[in-house]
Design brief:
The protein is of the alpha+beta class. Helix content is 42%, strand content 8%. The protein folds into two domains: 93 residues, Ribosomal protein S4/S9, N-terminal domain (Ribosomal Protein S4 Delta 41, Chain A, domain 1, Orthogonal Bundle), CATH 1.10.1050; 87 residues, Structural Genomics Hypothetical 15.5 Kd Protein In mrcA-pckA Intergenic Region, Chain A (Roll), CATH 3.10.290.10. The longest helix is centred in the N-terminal third of the chain and has 16 residues.
C-alpha cells in the first residue's frame, strides 16, 4: 500500500491541526471538511477519540497501519512509558530525523531524499525511510547532493530551529543522534496515552 497522496488540507482540517506543515485551510476554516462540516458535531465515543488520535499520529509521521502496529508492539515490550517510547521510535525514524535536522522542509521531502539515495548513515547510503537511527549514528547528505537547492534552502530556513537530542554541523551538512528525545522536547500535538488505551483494549 502506498503513502497517503490525497488532499493534505482536508486531513489537517479534520484534526484541526496543521500536521503536514503550515496550512491556511486550518487557519481560515476551523471546522471539519465536507458538506456537514459546519453543522453540529455529535459527541464522539471514547473509541472514536482514541482512533482519531492514532490516525493523527499515522498521518503526522507518514506511517502505514501495519508499521504503526509493529512500532507500538515494539514500544510495549520495552521498559518505560509505552506512549513516550512509541513517540521516540517514530522520532528516530530516518525520514523524521532528517526533517528534524532541517535537511528537508517536510517529512515527505525527507522521505524523497532518502529514497533517491541522497543520505548516508555512518558513511553508508541508506534508502529506507523507516530505518531506525540509533544513538551515535551520523546522518549526512551525500557529497554530490550537498548543492541540491532543496537541501540548501531548507537548511537556511531552519538555521535556528534545533533539537536537543540532535547534534548538527551546518558546514558539513552532517547530524548525529546524541540521545533519545524526551517527551517535553517533541513538539507534536499528539496525546499518546489515548493511542496506548486504544491498543490496550
Amino acid at each position: 500500500m502506498a503513502r497517503y497522496r490525497g488532499p493534505k488540507a482536508k486531513v489537517a482540517r479534520r484534526f484541526n491541526d496543521p500536521i503536514f506543515g503550515p496550512s491556511k485551510a486550518v487557519q481560515k476554516k476551523a471546522y471539519p471538511p465536507g458538506q456537514h462540516g459546519r453543522g453540529r458535531r455529535k459527541k464522539q465515543s471514547e473509541y472514536a477519540i482514541q482512533l482519531s488520535e492514532k490516525q493523527k499520529a499515522k498521518y503526522t509521521y507518514g506511517v502505514l497501519e501495519r508499521q504503526f502496529a509493529n512500532l507500538f508492539d515494539k514500544a510495549s515490550r520495552k521498559s518505560g512509558i509505552t506512549g513516550e517510547i512509541l513517540l521516540q521510535l517514530l522520532e528516530t525514524r530516518l525520514d523524521n530525523t532528517i526533517y528534524r535536522l532541517g535537511i528537508a522542509p517536510t517529512r515527505r521531502a525527507a522521505r524523497q531524499l532518502v529514497l533517491h539515495k541522497h543520505i548516508t548513515v555512518n558513511g553508508e547510503i541508506v534508502n529506507i525511510p523507516s530505518f531506525a537511527v540509533k544513538i551515535g549514528d551520523e546522518i549526512e547528505v551525500r557529497e554530490k547532493s550537498k548543492s541540491l537547492e532543496a537541501v540548501t534552502n531548507s537548511v537556511a530556513a531552519t538555521a535556528t530551529k534545533r533539537f536537543p537530542w540532535l547534534e548538527w554541523s551546518p558546514s558539513e551538512l552532517k547530524g548525529k543522534l546524541i540521545s533519545l528525545p524526551m517527551r517535553e522536547d517533541i513538539p507534536e500535538n499528539i496525546k499518546e496515552q489515548l493511542i496506548v488505551e486504544l491498543y490496550s483494549k
